[in-house]
Amino acid sequence: MRSVVLAWLLAAVAGASSRSPAALASYSFDDDAATGPDTFAVWQGARHTRGGRGRVSLSTAFHVSGHRSVELRDAAGDGDFPELQGYFPVRTKGTLFFHFAFLVTDPKEELNIALAGPRFFQLEKDGLAFWLGTREGRLVHYSDSIPKRLFVPEAFAWYTVDVAYDIPSGTYDLVIRREGSEAPLVALQRQPNAIRKPGSAIDKFSFVGAPFTDRSRVVYYVDDVVIGTDEGVARRPFVAPGRRRLFIDSFVQYQLLLRERPRCLPPLDPEDLGFTPDDLAEVQAAGLSDAVAGLLAGERAGRPASLERGGGAWRRVLDAAWAWGEGCAALEAGDAAKALVHFEQAADDAPGGRLFHLSSALALTALGRIGEADERLALISEWRSDARYAVASAYVGLARRDLDRALEWLRDPAGEVVGREPFAGGVRPVEALVTEQYYYVLLWKVAYDDARDFALVMARRASGVGLAAGAWRVRAADASFYRRDTAEARELYTSALAEERDYAALREIYLRLADLAFLDGDLAEERRLREHYYGALGE
Q1: Is 481 exposed, middle or buried (0-12, 13-18, 19+ CB in 10 A)?
Q2: Which helix (DSSP H) or strand (DSSP E) does residue 466 occupy?
Q3: DSSP state, 265?
Q4: How many CB atoms within 10 Å of residue 256?
Q5: Contact criterion met (CB below 8 Å) for 106 and 219
Q6: What are the residues whose beta carbons fall under 8 Å from the beta carbon of 420, sequence distance 6 or more?
Q7: Is 473 exposed, middle or buried (0-12, 13-18, 19+ CB in 10 A)?
Q8: Tell me: the pLDDT tens digits for 1-26?
Q9: Is the full-model pTM beyond 0.70?
Q10: 254: closest CA among 356, 358, 389, 95?
């Protein structure tokens, strides 16, 4: 287990460190790279209008390396545009290197290529950073929001582009070469970024047609896309992560951990403990990766002496992680009061560590301080789709009394919410919490039919007064999923799709439907559903 966690930690560091060569993403498009939240998405119509006639596909017609590239083909006047959008760990400092090759069939048609941050492709901080495109037959780059001419590209010629983007200063160096020529056509330095904003974060790249004009019939090809933190980054294939664990399997796994005694639920990624990619880079540079890997794997060793020396925000996060580990050891030993002190210290030192609040809720529950446990859960309410939150919520609900009495205690306030006419003023936070706990306690009690029925009543009451009902419809489907009634679960998830408009919620529904197909042994349908949201590359 320790070696697995160390590999996980070092992989995260490799995606973050600006101190050593690291490929955040590398695609030659010759291997089968699965679409998904950690790789890239392919949208034949990025506006999701369903009327787009553009296309993103693999092609053997032209390529730089291997035998395939990606073809993007836009269609004028269809109200949409095709897009290949890739993701990598967010970068907030250091230099990012972006390499790719492109070929255009008609330079007069518009195309756009960009690096952007968490604010996507807006001309604002943490939005558009680097922007390259064709305008009226010329290649241009947008610096300080102004399109600046570069050259007239030739049709059917490959051009390689190298961008060295300095995040703190918000400037970049740009070098472009034509195939077969060592001398660069473009060699610019210290160009202000698209928004002229220093310190603008980056976490995605995009290749599109004409998203703003809808007049382009561009057909162009992209190959050898590399995002890295060193100019000499190795161009190796990026391996997509393996298939995730089913949501319901995670719930059962965490439930088993808590059945015997209160104990910490495990982190799934560094962000659960408040680490940013830059923090992990500092951890590696300080030679503490191995020690932290042991901590995350559940080993309880003495705190390294080097942790006591020096400053920096990363040390506070690392100190918080250590405090959390000491709290976990105390909770495992039955000393919930001592554990709570460590968890609260960790939350103060690293407020971004959501697992700290969850652990505090479990310790408070063990101490019988249920109201305070509810407050800690409320602090991480945006984590509701996570199985650890679901299990912790059930655990807090159960602690009010034994299983049957807990349901009886919760039934009254939950029933008041269901019966209140007509959900006057919406569902208040405390009501949202108690209804969730009632539902999760039913799951813990393996009362799946009751959980489904309660969720459906909540969904009907909410939709009847114009409130969002999607989360409760999905919970009803989850309950059917737990009892392995795949047909009913599929029907309920499908009905939830019809009303849902939030893309994050849609993603969760499609992935659950993909889980159902996986359980049914229909791997083709599983892939189709997964790629319905993330798209797919095909010839």
Answers
A1: buried
A2: none
A3: P
A4: 10
A5: yes
A6: none
A7: buried
A8: 443 344 444 444 433 333 334 556 66
A9: no
A10: 389
